[in-house]
Write a structure and sequence with these properties.
It is globular and about 55 Å long. The chain has 221 residues and is an alpha/beta fold. It contains seven helices and twelve strands.
């Protein structure tokens, strides 16, 4: 196991068989939980699942009566709604949150054992742009950060066979414009958009290499 310090949250990255339990959770709507590790560190936010229309509101409910300014968010997500991810990302940035990729694990095998973060997690599609919202951003070497084009959600499973109207194309182009503005507002590079928008939904997602993570400015530490 090894650790990284993000603004007072000393995250210990390790491995655990329990990481497999989150595979089903990341297919469900995103849930937020606070991982406490007092007195040795501040704790962090675990964000697992798909970004939906309810996710920004759910985060606001989660953040009530919690002082989250400058906290760290640990992401494990396969993406989701473009506009709701943008809304949530802007909220993260306003709070000065820090972002990383991982699976939060609570080790109950020993009294007083500290929680850890398993790095073998996935941040895909719009999760990548949520990762970008962090004031400081870290991706452990064992994590998987993968991108592809945005698409009409109800036709992504069989995109080639689906039919599209001019209104559909207008919506996609509008959302690409919103995503581009958001990317630059968050300090991302044009290479991130170029890489993502070059991968159609009928192809496998492109996993960013360590060099591409730096090139796109997705990592800052």
């Amino acid at each position: 196991a090894w650790g990284v310090v993000l603004a007072g949250a000393a995250l210990t990255f390790g491995t655990s068989a329990r990481a497999g339990n989150t595979l089903e959770e990341r297919k469900l709507p995103m849930k937020f939980s606070w991982v406490a590790c007092e007195p040795n560190c501040r704790g962090w936010i675990s964000a697992v699942g798909i970004i939906t229309a309810d996710t920004p509101r759910d985060f606001e409910e989660f953040s009530k009566e919690r002082k989250l300014d400058g906290a760290t968010v640990v992401l494990d997500s396969s993406g989701g709604s473009v506009n709701d991810a943008i809304t949530l990302g802007r909220r993260f940035r306003k709070l000065g949150l820090l972002t990383t990729v991982g699976i939060s694990l609570h080790d109950r095998s020993g009294q007083g054992a500290r929680p850890t973060v398993a790095p073998q997690a996935y941040c895909e599609s719009m999760c990548v742009f949520l990762l970008l919202s962090g004031k400081t951003r870290y991706v452990p070497p064992a994590a998987h950060v993968r991108v592809h084009q945005i698409w009409m959600g109800d036709r992504a499973d069989d995109a080639k066979a689906a039919s599209y109207t001019a209104q559909d194309l207008m919506i996609v182009e509008r959302d690409i414009g919103r995503l581009a503005k958001y990317t630059f507002d968050m300090g991302g590079a044009g290479e991130l958009l170029s890489l993502a928008l070059s991968v159609p939904p009928w192809e496998d997602l492109h996993e960013l290499s360590a060099a591409e993570l730096r090139l796109t400015n997705l990592v800052t530490t």
